[in-house]
Amino acid sequence: xxxxxxxxxxxxxxxxxxxxQDLIERANAHSPCxxxxxxxxxxxxxxxxxxxxxxxxxxxxxxxPHPDILxxxxxxxxxxxxxxxxxxxxVAAAQPDLPADRFLHTPSALDSLNASFxxxxxxxxxxxxEETASxxxxxxxxxxxxxxxxxxxxxxxxxxxxxxPPLGIALGLPDLNAAALRDAWESARPLxxxxxxxxxLIDAQGxxxxxxxxxxxxxxxxxxxxxxxxDDTGGTVWLAPGRLLVSDAGVWLGRVRRVSRDKEGPLxxxxxxxxxxxxxxxxxxxxxxxxxxxxxxPSKTSVTLIEMDAEPTRPFALAAHLPETQVxxxxxxxxxxxxxxxxxxxxxGANATELFLKARAVCTLI
Length: 366
Fold this sequence. Notes:
366 residues, alpha/beta, eight-stranded mixed sheet, 10 helices, disordered N terminus, disordered C terminus
């Protein structure tokens, strides 16, 4: 018996490259579809769990409420952050017996003074029972001007002196990176100066690291900042990375239905089913688009991707750099793990299928 190890260039390739044939087969059977990979999800969760001194790691259910993703997060000891009724219903359906101390109710208002994060409760089939939802974390409004922020700080200090004082505060960050966290922390420092062992929730609302840096170095810098924050307060840090937690674990797959040209160059028409995925996730973002059917070919052609049978009032066009592409090829939109499940299209037959790709061994015994 010998151990067959994949060559280095395969080991270091993105997961969608390693499992390319699996993806092409599933696309041919189910296109258009979202695929979520358990192996990559495990790697991402372990990386975030290893961040120094983050006492609790939360998966934002709104980022992806797929039942298998919820199950995997809970298996590895994560907690769940629920924003609205849809999140609560998804968790109730997938995890009806989830203990009350494993989830957190988060407000949808980004900088509302009255919004609070509830740290316990009961998930029911139709929503949440609020009577047991206590205690709370208060939202620190990171987006307000300095004058307004000082006024909010005074009000929060008053609430700290109430008969049911909050556990701590939630820092809502549009982008999650070390610099943004340091700035938010400095603005909240006076509020926490004499607060004994507060809980500080770092809530990534936009779900992006600096320059999209979800790499080991980006996480390391963030971990060092969290370590310094803990030393400064003597309190507890909870972390909700938002979309970052699951984005790398998913791809959207669609087959090419037509290839033509206009005065700007090649037009590649791809299957519909991803319209909800487009506005928040593609325009102005860094999703890589690849031709899985021709990964070995050089990407030398600038093309325009258009959605098949798109309505005139809902057009979609995206520029990409691809190899020469033919009808039947499978295209992949990477970093789509927080873009599919739960984002439904109102057009009949327009929604993409969601599939969970189970982990497999990296090495093969022969």
